[in-house]
Structures are given as C-alpha cells and as structure tokens.
Amino acid sequence: MQRASDSRTATTDSGSRPRVVVIGAGFGGLRAARGLSDVGVDVTLVDSNNFHTFQPLLYQVATAGLDSDDVCFPVRAIVRRRPAVTVRLGTVTAIDLQQRHVTIDHDHLLTYDYLVIAAGSVSTSFGIPGVDEHTFPLKTLNDALALRTHLLSLVEEVHASGGVEHDLGIVIVGGGPTGVEMAGGMRELLDKVLAKDFPHLHLDRVPITIVEAANRVLGAFKPKLSQRAERALARRNIRVEVGVGVASVEPHAVVLKDGRRLTGQTLVWAAGVTANPVAKMLGIELGRGGRIPVEADLSVLGYANVFAIGDIANALDPNGTSLPQVAQPAIQGGVHVAKQIAGRLAGQPGTPFAYHDKGSMATIGRNQAVAEFPRGLLLSGALGWGAWLGLHIVYLMGFRNRANVLVNWAWNYLTYDRGSRPIISIPTNVLKRSETR
Ligand SMILES: Cc1cc2nc3c(=O)[nH]c(=O)nc-3n(C[C@H](O)[C@H](O)[C@H](O)COP(=O)(O)OP(=O)(O)OC[C@H]3O[C@@H](n4cnc5c(N)ncnc54)[C@H](O)[C@@H]3O)c2cc1C
Questions:
Q1: How far is the CA of 118 from the centre of ligand 1 (A)?
Q2: What are the beta bridge partners of residue 378?
Q3: Run of H or E residues at 399
Q4: Dihedral angle at the C-alpha atoms of 432, 266, 217, 390, nearest 10 degrees?
Q5: Which whole number is the average pLDDT over 186-199?
Q6: Which ligand 1 atom lies nearest to the CA of residue 361?
Q7: Which of 79, 125, 158, 402 is found 20 to 30 A from 348 (Cα to Cα)?
Q8: Does an H or E element contain 227, and which?
Q9: Do 185 and 365 touch, CB atoms closer than 8 A?
C-alpha cells in the first residue's frame, strides 16, 4: 500500500503541486493544515484573525482571570516551521464550488484543488427579540474583552454614583458549560477580588441568575453531575432557573416565557451557536443549525474535493446524531481530512471518520468542576477541578501560553486576586459585537 507521504510527487493537470485552501485557523483548520504540511501539497490557511483563539478559556478573560494573549496564539508562529503552509490574513466572503475558488475580502481570488472548510460557529439569538441589542455574547476575544470592560466599568459607576450592589445584577442565559463557567467566574471576581477594592459595596450579594430552558444545567452531562453542579452553584449564591425559556430581552431585563422579568445590568447570552455564515456561501442545502452536510469521510455531499470539519459541519455518529460542537470533533476531523486528501492524491479511496469521545468537563470555580470520561468515569469537586486544570493546560497552544496560564492560575489561587483588570477604551462598536456575529 502506498503511504500518504509518498504522494509528495503528486501534481495537478498543470504540473504544479496541488493547492489546498483551509478556511479557519481554529481547532480543526490548524490540525488539517499541520497534517497537510508534508504530503506534497501547497496549503493556504486563511483566517480573519492573525491569531488562534482557545475559546474554552474565554470566560477567564471576561472575568479577569487571564490576560487576552494567554488564550491566543499567532497563527504564523504555529506554522512557521512548515514551509508548505502559507498564512493569508483575510475574511472569506464567497466560495465558488464550480470554479473552485474562494474570494477573500471581496476582491482577491484563491483557487484550490482541495478545500477544507473549518470556519466554526457564531453565537445565535434564535430570533428572540432583543438578544442581539441587549446581551453580551461570548464567542470571540472581542466579546470577552467587551464583557470584562463592561463589568469593571459598571462596578466603578455604581461606586461613583453611591449605588448599591443590587444595581449590578447579572443574568446569564444558557446553562451549558459556558453559562455555568461564566457564572462561577463572575462570582469569584465579585466576591474575592473586587470586594477587596470596594469594601463598602457588598459584592457577594450581587444577584447572579442562570436561565436554562431544559430541566437541568449541563444537560449534556449525566444527571448526577448536573445535580452536583447545581448544588455547587447554590453554595456560591448563584440562582438557577431551569425549565423556562426566554421570550424576549429588554435593555435591562430578560423576559421569561412564563411572564417573569429578571432584571440586571449585565445580560449574557450563552444559549447556543449556529454554523458560521461561510456555510451559506456554498449555495447547497444545509443541515441542522445551518451546518454543512458531509459524507462519512467528511467530504461535502456531492463535492469529493471539498471537506467540512468542526462546528460548521454536520458530521453524524453511527446512530445518525450530529456530533457535538466542541473541540474534539474539530481536532480529530482536521487530522482525518488531511489523511483523506493525502490518500486521494495517492489514488486511495476515502475512509469514514470515526469520532472518539474523550469526555466533557465544566468548572464552577475554585476546587469545583464536574468531568465525565468514557467508560462511565465521573469526577466532581477538587478531583474534577484538577482534571479540568490539567487538560486545559495540555490542549492550550504554545509553551509560553501554558507557562503564563499556570503562573496566572497559581497567583490567582494563592492570593485570591486577579491581575487582568484594565478598563480598556476601545470604541463600543468594535467591542460590543463580535466580528463574526
Ligand atoms: C466560550 C466557549 C467555551 C467553550 N468551551 C469548550 C470546552 O470547554 N470544551 C470544548 O471541547 N469545546 C468548547 N467550546 C467549543 C469549541 O471552542 C469549538 O467547538 C471549537 O472551537 C470548534 O473548532 P472549529 O475549528 O470548528 O472552529 P473555531 O475554533 O471556532 O475556528 C474557526 C476559525 O475560523 C475563522 N473564521 C471564521 N469565519 C471566517 C471567515 N469568513 N474567513 C476567514 N476565517 C474565518 C475564525 O476566526 C476562527 O479562527 C467552547 C466555545 C466557546 C465559545
């Protein structure tokens, strides 16, 4: 059997090396680009940002636990030692599947022999009135910085105007890992850090509420872990409203479907994502959540030379259920499509993608996390927290970031402080809304 790397002599009809365009330098796109860097193709990796974002720790930037550059890594540095990979900073604005080219920033064409679409997902309001105008999403670095700036400024405003802690109410919509982690992070920022700066404000009494439409938080976890998480939230004075949806959002209130209004000055939308609008550029019928339908080998239905991976793809497990929009399907998908392209060049047939679930975890705060691993292993409390810390460090990109995060976490743990608290003045229109939303 010919090995994938033997395909380095492969050429196109014009005699040049095959060109692969990878859209997105997220978890999936980076793995695909790395995997393709030594199989005899020229790879162009396109991203709107010059950095890769480690989204699982964005909530720590929003709650002043980490610096913004601890969770980002320059894309060019990641592929520096891979001469076959060229980075192109720019936003994909059109894709022509027939002509085989993508358009960057409306005016530059990149032709391809193979295309890998890994543009991720964007926050969605599900069409609920007021969400886009009055809530903070948490999907990009800009989102995290906007939320941090808002929170820190608000406490200053309440202090300056002689207000009280109840003027600072926080409502988080979405009881998945992002909502739960945000709530825990905000509680620690208020109680343990800002309370020392504003001793006359009783910041431990700031109401924090999580609203979740399902009947428990962390619905993707075993019910036992949801219960443990709810108990840990209650101990932190975080209220949980489950089994009720959101009807609309007003400037300072979330209106529930049962008619109740939860007021707050900080309204956070952590209720869900939909496929990145790049999916619509294909002009094909899309699947659940606007995701791109793919064959078993992750090629786009009807286009054997185009692959979609990660959050933007609607890859199915053997039971026909869509894979979750989390990091592992993207990472494993990236590795898989690189092998598929190398195999195609070597004249081999495609092979189906087999996703290996490595488990899920969410932290509620200091010494408290829930973790669920394959073969039924469940962890919670300090053990779960240890596993959460360790795995996030392992998956973080780059030695410098890992070292910084470790130092920051150790500092925060030992001193009950958080150093990343500058109130930055970036124009609201840049900060308030993420660029991809
Ligand atoms: C707050 C938060 C917390 C999360 N926590 C966890 C967690 O704890 N564990 C977990 O497994 N998963 C978590 N996730 C989900 C995980 O981050 C995603 O599933 C994962 O990032 C998907 O990888 P991807 O490669 O598909 O897309 P992404 O990693 O989102 O990468 C997409 C890339 O495409 C680029 N892009 C988008 N549009 C364009 C365009 N038009 N042109 C050029 N470039 C473009 C973006 O800039 C981005 O770099 C979290 C997500 C969020 C938002």
A1: 9
A2: 372
A3: helix 399-415
A4: 60
A5: 94
A6: 8
A7: 79
A8: helix 223-235
A9: yes
pTM beyond 0.90: the answer is yes
Identify the burial level of 376 via C-beta atoms within 10 angstroms of its C-beta, where 0-12 means exposed, 13-18 middle and 19 or more buried.
exposed
Contact 22, 43 (CB under 8 A): yes
Task: Write the residue with the smallest CA distance to atom 27 of ligand 1.
Answer: 120
The Cα 380–Cα 57 span in angstroms is: 19
Q: Which two tokens stand for residue 209?
A: 């509420």
**Locus of tokens 């619905």:** 219
The single-letter code of the amino acid at 146 is A
Of 57, 62, 87, residue with least CA distance to 402: 57
On the question of pLDDT at 2 being above 70, the answer is no
Q: Are 266 and 79 in contact (CB under 8 A)?
A: no
C-beta separation of 214 from 179 below 8 A: no
Helix or strand or coil: residue 212? strand
Max Cα–Cα distance, the chain, nearest Å: 76
- Tens of pLDDT, residues 122-148: 999 999 999 999 999 999 999 999 999
Residue 6 has pLDDT above 50, yes or no: no
| Selected catalytic residue, list 133, 156, 181, 230 | 181
pLDDT in tens, 149-175: 999 999 999 999 988 888 899 999 999
pLDDT digits (tens, 9 = 90+) for 88-121: 999 999 999 999 999 999 999 999 999 999 999 9
Closest by CA position to 138, among listed 180, 194, 198, 78: 180
Query: How many angstroms separate the CA atoms of 178 and 265, rounded?
Result: 19
**Residues having CB within 6 Å of any atom of ligand 1:** 23-29, 46-49, 55-56, 58-59, 91-92, 118-120, 138-139, 177-178, 276, 278, 310-312, 325-328, 330, 436
Contacts of 19 (CB under 8 A, 6+ apart): 12, 41, 42, 44, 111, 112, 113, 114
- Are 57 and 71 in contact, with CB atoms under 8 Å apart? yes
Residue with token string 């699982």: 56
Distances from the Cα of 101 to the Cα of 41, 87, 286, angstroms: 16, 17, 20
Average pLDDT in the chain: 92
| Rg, the chain, Cα only | 23
Strand pairing category for 114-117 and 303-308: parallel
DSSP-derived secondary structure for 337-351:
HHHHHHHHHTTPPP-
Instruction: Find tokens 């069409």 and name the residue.
Output: 127
d(CA 134, CA 279): 27
Told to judge if 181 belongs to the known catalytic residues of this protein, a careful annotator would answer: yes
